[in-house]
Amino acid sequence: MVQSIGPKPLSSNGRPVASVTRVASAAKTVARGDDVGAVPQLSGVAAEAAAQPPVDAARVAALRAQIENGSYRIDPDAIADRMLTMKQEWTSK
Predict the structure, then answer these.
(1) In Å, how far from its chain's centre is CA 57?
(2) Per residue in 43-88, pLDDT tens?
């Protein structure tokens, strides 16, 4: 059997942990915490975020134009660096 490289989270009985923890919304977490005064400010931020589209249409249009006219360049080194950074962040938590 092939063993993967890196730390393996274990439960109290020594078996590997394979469950996913659901994260509560920030508003609910703050409401249950000590700083209840931050809830109105948080709801304003959430409302502002909800009012904006989830995609930056101008950025998408600019990228689409670059792809169509052939000026969009892919930087494989930057992609690899970001992938490695993400992997390190995931395994360090």
Answers:
(1) 20
(2) 777 888 788 878 888 999 999 999 999 999 999 999 999 999 999 9
Distance CA(24)–CA(30), nearest Å, equals 10
Residue 72 CA to residue 67 CA, distance in Å, equals 5
- Structural domain count, the chain: 1
42 burial via Cβ count (<10 Å: 0-12, 13-18, 19+): middle
**CB within 8 A of 55, min separation 6: which ones?**
none
pTM for this structure?
0.37
Residue 68 within any structural domain of the chain: yes
SS3 state at 16: strand
